[in-house]
Amino acid sequence: MSIVSSVTRITTAVFVLIGLTGLAASAQAADKAGKPGVVIQISENNPATWNLALNNAKNLQQALGKDKVDVEIVAYGPGINMLKFDSEVAPRVKEASASGVAVRACGNTMKAQKLTEKDIEGSVKVVPAGVIEIMNKQREGWAYIKP
Amino acid sequence: MSIVSSVTRITTAVFVLIGLTGLAASAQAADKAGKPGVVIQISENNPATWNLALNNAKNLQQALGKDKVDVEIVAYGPGINMLKFDSEVAPRVKEASASGVAVRACGNTMKAQKLTEKDIEGSVKVVPAGVIEIMNKQREGWAYIKP
Amino acid sequence: MSIVSSVTRITTAVFVLIGLTGLAASAQAADKAGKPGVVIQISENNPATWNLALNNAKNLQQALGKDKVDVEIVAYGPGINMLKFDSEVAPRVKEASASGVAVRACGNTMKAQKLTEKDIEGSVKVVPAGVIEIMNKQREGWAYIKP
Prior knowledge:
3 copies of one chain form a homotrimer.
Chain A: H1 3-33, E1 37-42, H2 47-64, E2 70-75, H3 90-98, E3 102-106, H4 107-112, E4 125-127, H5 130-139, E5 143-145
Parallel strand pairs in A: 1-2, 1-5, 2-3, 3-4
């Protein structure tokens, strides 16, 4: 092994490792710089707030592009009424789902209020606990909005 | 030093450094993947909201296990009434504290309302400023919930 | 190339790379440990909430020092009324701006309510969409407060 080849190998090792370090750093930066997500909480029995939440979701999709942002609405507690099939915003909930907004109902609240999937708008999915869903989204880097 | 031993050493260096890079990356990932925390804000003088917050705390502990999640309730402004010793939810506040939920009162609000520690439920601790407590928790990676 | 010099070079490479890995890690930690920011959302037509938000902003600046924390208030939906030039908290909004708090009005809301910059307090700036402003701040690591 010549001196030149030895130095070359060491230099290569240095650059490979600088590269790997850089890759690791940029992969983590990418998480923050990647596709944004917003979780919108509804915990009030107030149609004005429901409409504001639905406007927020629509504005996000219109401004950024449906494919460029993840939007999820999570309803729990008295907010669950927003998602009932006969809620005054049920048509807007259906429209939001069709437009790619994930609309989620808190399973704990549904149990407490003796509601089943038949009681809520057909496009809504039930999650075990609304508060944990909202926590998880924030832990994944999503922004939180409570209208 | 033979060629074999030289190459071996360089290869070892490469693997050691890939390992170190990996360790650093996973240590940072661990921060996010570690024990979750949720800070719950109470800034309203509304017993229904107080009960919802206490339900949220309970649900988090029941679903994830008391030792697997940190939960803190911070009350400020008109929300301070939740923590008074004669509040209608005082027994639930005491129970939450006993169950490992950190319940905190905003010192600024207490000063403004001329309240002392004698006026609030015995298990509650006072922090200098509720808003800074909530900010700090979010900076530590905790999720934020305003019921 | 002697054995000693070869081992020295490899050892140097190891330490250089440990150092680089460490630098990358601490640069990322610095983002979180840097100057804190708090974005305060106003989406309600409620002067008590407006005053609470303005108190929050003031408390943050007083406790941490105006130069040590970034504070931004974003109003949208029914919250836009807080920022009208004849709002009952207009003097406090002006004072907050003068004190370094960024006060922002949602352009979408202003369009929907046919408001122009003449209708709002002179120190307030308009952003295209309040919800996106709030999302972006959270993505930059700011804490979120909804009073």
